[in-house]
Amino acid sequence: MKRLMIVDDSNIIRSKIARALGEHGLEVVGLSPNGEDAIERCVSARPDVITMDITMPGMDGIECIRQIRRLNPTVRILVVSALADKATAIQALKEGAQGFVCKPFTEESLNEAIGELFSED
Amino acid sequence: MDEQQLRIFVGIIQHYFEQETGRPAEVGSPYLCDPSQLPVHDFTGVIGISGNRKGCVYFSSPREILREMLLRAGESDVSDENLADLAGEIANTISGNARREFGHEFLISVPIVVRGTHQSISVPRDVRAYVIPFRWHKVDASLVVSVM
Fold this sequence. Notes:
Chain A is α/β, with parallel strands linked by helices. Chain A has five helices and five strands, in the order βαβαβαβαβα. The longest helix of chain A is centred in the N-terminal third of the chain and has 12 residues.
């Protein structure tokens, strides 16, 4: 079972992602409301995949991806953000994310995106 | 903010409610509003705009809409905490989606949520404020765009 960590400043979005992906075989091992917390939690939670918001209080998602990449080069990162411009998606991918889902999202689009992250396994 | 740019926000509201609830919002005609008369409902999510534009965008809703949206999404916790969270998340999503048209230099803040209809929301004095009224689940709510 893949281990999932969810990083988003919205409690309801964290719950929504946990419900959507928990029903499809991912084990939720961490919930973080901001980048700083995510970096701390990432070490102990040892996730296989992280969903990452971009706009958060304190450290944003882009910086968080950069730092998590240094700690864990193999974790898969899916950005789940309202920022719908191409430049943000390109920057996130450049920093080490493997996928991007734009809010508002459906359960299907989220599951499909997670499936694509592991399609080469 | 011209008519075409306001239409971007109208489209985003329609898409948001359709996607999240399967039921589109009925969006009315945007109108220019005196800053002292701006609508404020039970929960208001405010996003500051900076970068290539300046001002703010806010989403203001009665609790009935937020409560119904949470329940439809399968969220059983409809506490005020979660209603406020949703108001902030909607404001964030609408403003973030606007970057598709306004570009990545349309910088958005994290949401600030104001509770209560007796509150007033400060918008920049030198920027026109447009109200985009809409109705969902037979209840009226508003998006206010005050961006130059």
